[in-house]
Design a protein that fits this description.
The chain is of the alpha/beta class and 1520 residues long. The chain is 20% helix and 32% strand. It is built from 25 helices and 108 strands. It has a 36-stranded parallel β-sheet that branches. The protein has a 19-stranded parallel β-sheet, covered by helices on one side. The radius of gyration is 64 Å and the shape is flat.
Length: 1520
């Protein structure tokens, strides 16, 4: 029975595999356009040629296009697709391929693939005489693929008749009218197969392989044998989704689909309608196959034999949300017919299904069927079982189902709702049978085993005897529920209500709502008969239960509710006297264990013993009530009369033995209770219920029947399991246990006690004691235990010993076991203790074994104490000198060094030894041992410790004391050897045997005293020495030696007087020498560090000076200027980034480019004070002033405004990038050298952020403004610097040279005395100012060196040169006079002095001829007579800039050409750039070019210490 359980989940999983395979086929079948060329075919020959061309070219794919409406006729042979992928497609209404009934249309072989898209294939035929394959339109061989998308197959035939034979036999190869797949894959999407014919599989025949159809239609296909539409054989797999199978017909089985030979079918969201089978399975037939049907409809299908919709033979079927409507079968099973197999049905509907013979809804002949929440409505059969027929060998389970309005057409038909045949089992849980009427033989007819449980209900059903007479005994019996011929009907927590029995026949009949026939059994447990009626013409029968002769009726907790009207018959009636003393038989093996569901179904049956013809009736806890709302109340006597008549059916607890289980409590309860009486009067709280019941029973004016007091108090026995008893396990319900044979009440099973297995007395033991004695061998002791169980409950007990409660010194075997339900005791565990590895303990080893016993769900835990007593004896083999290890183990070792014993020491002098057993574990007791008799027998008597002197050969025995835990202490004191030094030997013996080191312990000391030899582990060498301060004397005692020491308190103390004097002098001398050395060393080190620091400082200063000069002569950021016209058009001051992005700037990236550009176009340096922290000119005050000043300057000097370019910090220096901004500031000296004029814009205005006035005075006070002026003066002098905004001439600002302003130049060169918004900017300007001063200083030194040569030039030029020198000297004097102010010490330190020394030393090393040539070169570049005017009006637009008028150099330190020479000189001095000077003759005078004449010559500069440092020198070679 367990092997035949339904497994719908496994079935569903197997069939869901089809969906996954279908998805894989869909991915494969997806057409992916690639570079393959598309061929347009107009005829079948074009298609064949395209395939041949693709095969010859080795292509894997061929795309063939058929024009819309094109009709291709095949020329007598199919199109072969072999080894390649072919896609034939069309557009619009599609194209047609007509085989003209000459052959099939396509053959797909050798792994080929065919895709038909929007193509109609028609009139294909396959004949057995040609190739003996099927497939009227298309043949797909193994390993090939076919895809139909929006395709149509029609009027195709698979002809299997051999026309050459007169017999015309149908051959098996004629299959698959449309498609035959022999192991291939077929995919249909939105396609149609119609009007196809075959012997098997009218539309498709699949042997193996895979078939997937989606949104497709199969219509009007027929077969002469199986499968009018789809045939699946040879383990084929098919998935049909959202498709329709309409009007298909087969000559044998499977009107629409036939699956066999292990095939699998998935039918989902599809409709099968109007299909017909000549034999079985109007819609689907399964033979040794599996099917999964979901959300489908099977409508109006018909089978000429069995299974109007579904037929199964040894197959598996799962139905989910399926509707089967209007199907009929000429045999059995209008909806479903099963012949062995497994069926799972959920949420389905069987509606208006009919069968001619039996099972209008379902006919079951063997197998297992499970129905969940399924509706069977208006189904009918011509003969038996209008709803469900469960035949022999069937196991049927129904949960939450409804059988409604089912019927049988024949008057003598059995079971209008259900028939349960012999050996059939039906379990109905929460199931309703309603409005199912029968003419004679019952709504439910039971010859097998029927169980209704969990609220199941039979309601509104009618059983009618129409008065047909006959000689048959069966014609006089029946009812709504009819149990007969060995059948068993069982109701648990179920109801039969509103059912009616009409007996219209005049002969005596025995009809009832529930009729129990001969050999039938009816068992009612906690069930109810409510408002059921019986109308009989002869006043016979019963309104509830009629028990015939040989029948058995048992009820527990039955409640019968009597209707309000007049009752013609009693509720419970028996035929003949009741058999009372029949012993309850042993329960036979029932069929309930084979039910595949949980719920009611135990192995008990109240059967009548053989040989008894009288009925058996047992009523436990019976109760009779009247339905509510009756107009005329009834008395208790009336209720009892209507229910049981005279009450002869009842027994009491005392009338018969064995009414209840012996452990249960039996009590008699009234059948008619107070609450059962309609219209009762209220009672007082202290009223006797029995007396009140008597009063009520006699109170009725209309009562015609008066019963006695005994009759009014009729009772029924009730059984219950009261604590501490519990219902026996296995009973279907706990409340039924005390009534059912073989169950009853039971006391809980529990462990009662534990005894020793060997003891016959079985005396209980409180604990287990094991005694071990470890001598020369280890000891072991075991004890076997038995567990005794108490209680009467028949349940298996499982015990488990907690592994964590078993200590290491015990072994328990086994750790788990079971005690059978029938055994009162059983061998428990065997506990073994072994002394191996166990150290002796003075107290017993204690262990608490935790044992859990589980019996019937009750878990008891017991604790078994186990005590182990261990007595160990010491052995000389393991006893040793020293203490045991922390884990209690003894490890004897041999000492290689003697034990040093210091005499006359205040420290305790003793040595320890340990007593150990055979395992090398410490023995805790002291000798001798008396713990056990065996220990006393084997225990040693004493230890012996001796000390032997090697020099004298004497031996003395030492005392020892027991300390604790097997450890003994030996004081190292011998009266015989007290105070003597030398070598001694300690020896440890146990009962005169040496201890330690195993066999090596037995070695004896041999040889003369004092000889070096190995000492055994039982012996320890002791060396007695004098303490520190004492020396060994001649007599082996300790004393003092020499006149400088004396003995005091056991030690030698030196004489202090002479020693102190000598020691003091030595110490003083040593300290003096050491102090002098330390002072000299510190002075030398300090001077050395100071000199090194000064040298490092000088080197750092030189490096910084050289870097400053290098930075001053390098253009680190491009020179960016703006043309005056562009500046004027901008309308205001523009930031560098905006001007750069707007293309307003002219940038020179190198000094040469900047110098060349400045020689062509005049550059004007504009300096001004910012009027805001974020914007230089927020209110456009400076912008008009700058325009007017530049225009005035052009008018004054005759400059062309179109050629004038302006340098302004706001548009010439980056404002957002701090790194590039710093580079531009570092190049400000070179910017100033390139400009020709300098304008100070300082009109009267107000600072936006501070509100302070801004004018020329505040401008001159700004540090940045002073830096710009000094940079310009360094290169161009002060005579080209003008101030705009100081005075007005005719309303316009007047340009005033700053040399005319008092102390302007003096104040402007004091950069660091000016105001800075950020004081940290001063540190950033140190190197910049230092570099500019270095350039000026170089010019001054060159001027001094070239002064004599300058007087040799013509008079006019000499005057100009002399004026420049004089004015340059004025600026130099101002710098010299204000050096402390210009170069603050806290910022510059000694950098200025270092710079001057560097420049002077460099120029001092240059030869006189080189200096003279340098002077001539500078004069040639500065002489105005040899050059034209630099700037002038631009008369021609083709020239960028024309020379302007000659500007004055009266105040310049050196001119522009001179500045070029200074840059070159500085470059040579600080950049080590060797150049060659060559003199060329030209009209303008001599020119020089740099050249390196002597590579590697350098200038050496000596510092104060005489150290040399390489300084690149100025090397100039002049060639004339």
């Amino acid at each position: 029975g367990s092997e035949r359980r339904l497994q719908p989940n496994r079935m569903a999983a197997n069939v869901r595999l089809l969906v996954a395979l279908g998805a894989a086929a869909a991915v494969w079948a997806g057409v992916q356009q690639d570079s393959t060329a598309i061929i347009t075919a107009t005829s079948a020959q074009d298609v064949r040629a395209a395939l041949v061309q693709a095969q010859d070219a080795g292509s894997v794919e061929s795309l063939i296009y058929l024009e819309e409406g094109r009709h291709l006729q095949l020329d007598g042979g199919p199109i072969a697709v072999a080894g390649i992928r072919v896609r034939i497609f069309s557009s619009g209404e599609g194209a047609t391929i007509d085989a003209m009934q000459r052959s099939r249309a396509f053959i797909v072989s050798h792994g080929g693939s065919l895709i038909l898209d929007n193509v109609h294939v028609t009139r294909g035929i396959s004949r057995w005489t040609s190739d003996r394959h099927g497939g009227g339109c298309i043949l797909v061989l193994a390993g090939c693929n076919l895809t139909l998308s929006r395709a149509r197959l029609s009027h195709c035939v698979a002809d299997g008749r051999d026309t050459s034979s007169q017999a015309g036999l149908e051959l098996p190869s004629a299959h698959g009218g449309g498609i035959s797949s022999e192991g291939g894959t077929v995919w249909l999407t939105r396609s149609v197969i119609t009007e196809c014919q075959a012997v098997d599989g009218g539309a498709i025949f699949a042997t193996g392989g895979f078939l997937y159809a989606e949104e497709s239609v199969f219509r009007g296909c027929t077969s002469e044998r199986e499968a009018g539409c789809l045939a699946l054989l040879g383990q084929a797999r098919a998935a049909i989704r959202r498709s329709r199978l309409d009007g298909c017909e087969s000559g044998s089985v499977g009107g629409a689909i036939f699956a066999a030979d292990g095939s699998q079918l998935l039918l989902e969201e599809s409709v099968v309608v109007a299909c017909t089978a000549g034999a079985d399975g109007g819609a689907i037939a399964l033979l040794d196959a599996s099917a999964y049907v979901r959300n489908a409809e099977l409508l109006s299908c018909r089978a000429r034999q069995n299974g109007g919709a579904l037929w199964l033979g040894t197959s598996n079927l799962a139905l989910y949300a399926v509707t089967i409507r209007g199907c009929d079968a000429s045999g059995g099973g209008g909806g479903l017919f099963l012949e062995m197999g497994e069926v799972y049905i959920a949420d389905c509907t069987f509606e208006v299904c009919t069968a001619v013979e039996l099972g209008g809804g379902l006919a079951l002949r063997g197998g297992s069927v499970q129905l969940n929440t399924t509706l069977i409505v208006r189904c009918s059969s011509g003969r038996d079982a209008g709803g469900v027929a469960a035949g022999s060998g069937t196991v049927l389970a129904m949960r939450g189902c409804i059988l409604r309005e089912c019927s049988v057409a024949e008057m003598r038909g059995l079971g209008s709702a259900m028939v349960v045949g012999q050996n059939g089992v039906a379990l109905l849980q929460s199931t309703t049978v309603e409005r199912c009427h029968s003419e004679m033989y019952g709504t439910l007819y039971v010859e097998g085993n029927l169980t209704l449980s969990d609220g199941s209900e039979i309601s509104d059903c009618t059983a009618r005897d129409s008065g047909i007479s006959g000689s048959s005994e069966d014609s006089r019996r029946g009812g709504v529920l009819w149990v007969r011929r060995g059948g068993v009907a069982r109701l648990l927590h179920s109801t039969i209500s509103n059912c009616h029995v009409l007996d219209l026949s005049t002969p005596q009949t025995y009809f009832a709502v529930a009729s129990v026939d001969y050999r039938g059994t009816l068992e009612l447990f906690h069930s109810t008969f409510r408002n059921n009626t019986m109308h009989s013409a002869t006043n016979d029968g019963a309104s509830a239960v009629f028990v015939h002769r040989g029948g058995v009726f048992i009820s527990v907790g039955l409640e019968i509710q009597i209707s309000c009207g007049k009752a013609d018959v009693q509720a419970i009636v028996t035929e003949g006297p009741v058999q009372r003393r029949a012993a309850a038989p042993a329960p036979p093996a029932g069929l309930h264990r084979s039910l595949p569901v949980d719920g009611f179904g135990g192995d008990f049956v109240f059967a009548q013993p053989a040989g008894h013809a009288d009925p058996v009736v047992k009523l436990y806890a019976f109760r009779a009530v009247v339905v509510d709302g009756c107009a005329e109340p009834r008395t208790a006597a009336q209720i009892l009369e209507v229910t049981l008549g005279s009450g002869d059916l009842l027994e009491t607890c005392g009338s018969a033995a064995g009414m209840c289980d012996e452990l249960s409590k039996c009590s008699d309860e009234l059948i008619v209770r107070e609450e059962a009486l309609a219209g009762r009067r209220s009672m007082s709280p202290n009223a006797d219920p029995y007396l009140e019941g008597l009063r009520l029973s006699t109170w009725s004016d209309n009562a015609s029947t008066k019963l006695s007091l005994a009759a009014a108090r009729v009772t029924s026995p009730s059984c219950a399991c009261l604590p501490p008893t519990t219902p026996a396990l296995g009973a279907p319900k706990a409340s039924l246990a005390p009534y059912l044979p073989g169950y009853g009440c039971a006391t809980p099973r529990h462990p009662s006690d534990i005894t020793v297995l060997e003891r016959e007395s079985g005396a209980r033991i409180a604990h287990v004691v094991l005694t071990l004695t470890k001598t020369g061998v280890n000891d072991e002791q075991s004890v076997a235990l038995r567990m005794h169980m108490g209680g009467t409950e028949r349940a298996k007990a499982a015990w488990t010993v907690d592994r964590n409660s078993v200590p290491r010194w015990l072994s328990v075997s086994p750790l788990a076991g079971e005690i059978s339900p029938d055994a009162q005791s059983a061998a428990f565990v065997t506990i073994t203790a072994n002394s191996k590895g166990m150290p002796e303990r003075l107290e017993p080893y204690a262990a608490m074994l935790n044992v859990s016993v589980n019996s019937g769900g009750t878990v008891d835990t017991i604790t078994l104490p186990v005590y182990t007593i261990l007595a160990a004896t010491s052995t000389p083999t393991t006893s040793m000198w020293g203490e045991p290890q922390p884990d209690g183990t003894c490890t004897p070792t041999q000492r290689t060094e003697p034990l040093r014993l210091v005499l006359h020491s205040s420290l305790p002098r003793r040595i320890l030894f340990s007593a150990c057993d055979r395992d090398g574990l410490v023995v805790q007791h002291s000798l001798p041992s008396s713990r056990t008799a065996k220990a006393i027998e084997f225990s040693p008597r004493r230890y012996r410790v001796t000390m032997h002197c090697e020099m004298t050969g004497l031996t003395d025995e030492l005392l020892y004391l027991y300390v604790s835990e097997g450890t003994y202490a030996v004081p190292l004191y011998s009266r015989q050897f007290d105070g003597l030094t030398g070598k001694f030997t300690l020896k440890l013996e146990l009962d005169d045997e040496p201890c330690g080191c195993g066999a090596a312990a037995g070695r004896r000391l041999q040889g003369p005293p004092g000889e070096n030899r190995s000492v055994g582990c039982a012996e320890i060498a002791v060396l007695a020495v004098c303490p520190d301060g004492l020396v060994e004397m001649a007599d082996r005692t300790c004393g003092c030696d020499g006149i400088w020491y004396r003995k005091h308190a056991g030690i030698c103390v030196p004489e202090l007087g002479p020693l102190l004097l000598l020691s003091g002098g030595l110490v003083a001398g040593v300290l003096l020498v050491v102090s002098m050395c330390v002072c000299a060393r510190r002075a030398h080190r300090t001077r050395k560090l100071a000199l090194a620091a000064a040298a490092r400082e000088r080197r750092c200063q030189r490096r910084r000076v050289r870097k400053a000069m290098s930075d001053a002569t390098a253009l680190k950021f491009p020179l960016c200027v703006m043309r005056l016209s562009s500046f004027r058009r901008s309308g205001s001051l523009v930031a560098y980034e905006d001007a750069r992005d707007g293309g307003l700037l002219r940038c020179c990236d190198s000094w040469e480019e900047a110098s060349h550009f400045s020689s062509k176009c005049p550059l004007i340096f504009i300096s001004h004070q910012w009027l805001s922290r974020t914007s230089p000119d927020p209110h456009d005050v400076h912008f008009p002033c700058i325009i007017r000043a530049v225009e005035a300057l052009c008018d004054e000097h005759g400059l062309d405004p179109e050629d004038v370019h302006i340098w302004l910090d706001y548009h010439s220096i980056p404002q957002h990038n701090e790194a590039t901004k710093a580079l531009a500031i570092g190049s400000i000296a070179l910017y100033a050298a390139c400009t020709s004029y300098f304008i100070v814009c300082a009109p009267d205005s107000t600072h936006v952020d501070t509100g302070l006035p801004c004018d020329a005075e505040t401008y001159l006070a700004r540090g940045w403004c002073r830096l710009e002026q000094w940079a310009f003066m360094t290169a161009n002098g002060a005579d080209s610097i003008y101030c705009c905004g100081v005075q007005l001439v005719e309303g316009q600002p007047r340009l005033m040279p700053i040399v005319d302003v008092v102390r302007w130049v003096e104040r402007s060169i004091k950069v660091f005395s000016g105001d800075f918004t950020c004081e940290k900017d001063k540190k950033l300007l140190v190197d910049v100012v230092l570099g500019m001063y270095g350039l000026a200083y170089v010019s001054m030194l060159q001027r001094e060196a070239s002064a004599p040569g300058a007087l040799k030039v013509d008079g006019g030029r000499a005057t100009g040169l002399r004026r420049t020198q004089i004015q340059g000297g004025l600026v130099g004097e101002l710098q010299a006079a204000n050096k402390e102010t210009i170069f603050p010490r806290h910022l510059f330190g000694e950098l200025v002095e270092v710079l001057e020394a560097e420049l002077e030393a460099s120029l001092a090393k240059v030869s006189a001829s080189a200096s003279e040539e340098m002077l001539h070169l500078e004069q040639a570049r500065r002489h105005p007579a040899r050059r034209k005017s630099r700037f002038g009006r631009n008369d021609s637009k083709n020239v960028e800039c024309e020379p302007a008028v000659t500007r004055s150099h009266s105040h310049a330190l050196f001119g522009k050409d001179g500045f070029q020479a200074v840059l070159q000189a500085s470059s040579h001095m600080y950049k080590c750039t060797p150049r060659t000077r060559s003199l060329k003759s030209s009209s303008d005078g001599p020119h020089f070019a740099g050249s390196a004449t002597r590579r590697g010559e350098h200038m050496a500069h000596n510092d104060s210490r005489g150290e040399k440092e390489d300084v690149p020198g100025l090397i100039i070679s002049v060639t004339v």
